[in-house]
Amino acid sequence: MESSNFNPSLLRFLQSSPTPFHATQSMKSRLLEAGFLELREDDNWVIDEGGRYFVSRNDSSLIAFTTPTLDFFNTGWRMIGAHTDSPCFKLKPNAQVTRHGHHQLGVEVYGGVLLHTWLDRDLSMAGRATFKTESGDIKSRLIDFKKAIATIPNLAIHLNRGVNTDGFAVNPQEEILPILCDATNEFELKRVIQQQLEAEHDGLNISAILDFELSMYDAQAPAIVGLHDEYICSARLDNLLSCFVGMEALIASDYERPSLLICTDHEEVGSLSTCGANGPFLEDVLRRLSPNPEHYVRAIQNSMLISADNAHALHPNYASKHDKLHAPSINQGAVIKVNNNQRYATNSETSAVYKDLAEQEGYDVQTFVVRSDMACGSTIGPITSGEIGVPTLDIGLPTFGMHSIRETAGSKDAYGLYKVLSRFTKRATLIDR
């Protein structure tokens, strides 16, 4: 993809992906457009040499791969990993709440949300709904209201005089219920969901809404901002930014080396699920491709995974939060993440491979190590490495405001990572042993 088209395409992807379900749907559409074939886990697979394939699980996780050869045990895989989920508010099963003249929604905090950033924002709602048809079948469809339908107003400073000096702790049970409308209007949540499904999908013949997995999201569109267009500002940059970069890198590969993209759900809550990195999804796919146990182990040990997840950029207003020798800057290149306590899976060899690739493409590389007096986050890197034993690098694009409703990254960094990852998919030898 040309650099002039990259960020506009990224913004469109972010806009069309308000939930992991929609992100996976967006990736499916792009992969089909690029000539990939969709597989189903409950079907028999016939994998051809020279093929391009993808498979999804739970509608929220996806693995795409290329098979220029079926000799995986000698070639290994060039793997890129990311995650489809982001911190947000998810509706509770009994979400309909009416208080003091307003209809509201009861929500549960998903992941490490910066709660106060969700106040005074235009919110919409999207996700997956499951229903029974008039013929008795049970089906699921995605749903996206798209327009702003709710807000969580702040408390006026006149009623909270100490907010600017004493801080503001948000109570997630009582103070983050989105307001939908006033109580003079009729509101029945399942009826509203059914109406929206019928508006988005023709011919559903719904007899009853059985259940739903819906999330609130920021209705403001992604944007390029800055006096000289230096920044990308959007919801869900962590980690849809990496999903998009990895997907486009796979599509741009020369299809001469077996390459694989894995984008999994539930990273923000530990990855332990059927479709998370701490579940069996990746191993299930790889063992179907290499059913011989000896060949499977050889394939893994000839492989490498680059786990791409956003990194903390040096914030000019909070510089003391960084180790000054490991403080990455926005628009200065991707960030290798290192933690000797194995919160990141980077080692000297996987780091060296990336540095060599970046040098060949002419891009800078930065390094992040958390301050020794602060706790370190983690990624799917150590989880995947620990699950299947693949050598792994943790890397990310420097970001401000991680886990805010609206995050900020550099407008130059994503394309640079895309170019380096594209070269990675073509790499013949990883480490000469």
UniProtKB/TrEMBL annotation:
InterPro entries: Peptidase_M18, Peptidase_M18_dom2. It is an enzyme of class 3 (hydrolase). Keywords: Aminopeptidase, Hydrolase, Metal-binding, Metalloprotease, Protease, Zinc. Its cofactor is Zn(2+). One of its GO terms (molecular function) is zinc ion binding. GO terms for biological process: proteolysis. GO terms for cellular component: cytoplasm. Its EC number is 3.4.11.-. It comes from the Bacteria. Belongs to the peptidase M18 family. This is M18 family aminopeptidase. It comes from Marinomonas mediterranea (strain ATCC 700492 / JCM 21426 / NBRC 103028 / MMB-1).
